[in-house]
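As noted in the main text, all predictions were made from sequence alone. Below is one such record, for Thioredoxin.
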Amino acid sequence: MQKTLTTVAEFYKFIESNRLVVIHVMRDQCSVCHAVLPQIAGLVDEYPQIPLGVINQSDVEAIAGELSIFTVPVDLIFMDGKEMHRQARFIDMQQFEHQLRLMYQSLLD
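Prediction:
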């Protein structure tokens, strides 16, 4: 399930209302951001209970300050409202998937 988040308040509500979430932060003119999004979405689709939030920093500029973002793309995993894993600029999909799987399995235990 992919959801576009359009405000900082919506972002906080999203991470607080789901135990485990993935957040993808991108910008309009970032070709890498647009290339990474389908890969992250495909990965998250393998875990039906994990929602994906997408934030366009071009529209929600305040998110950079809230999350201390200095470059895009940024992909984050939040668990119980806390940031647990972050990758920026160069996203290692295998490492990201490994971290997501570990946190997902910890919820099942």
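The chain has a mean pLDDT of 95. The radius of gyration is 13 Å. These features were considered when defining construct boundaries for the mutagenesis experiments described in Section 2.9.
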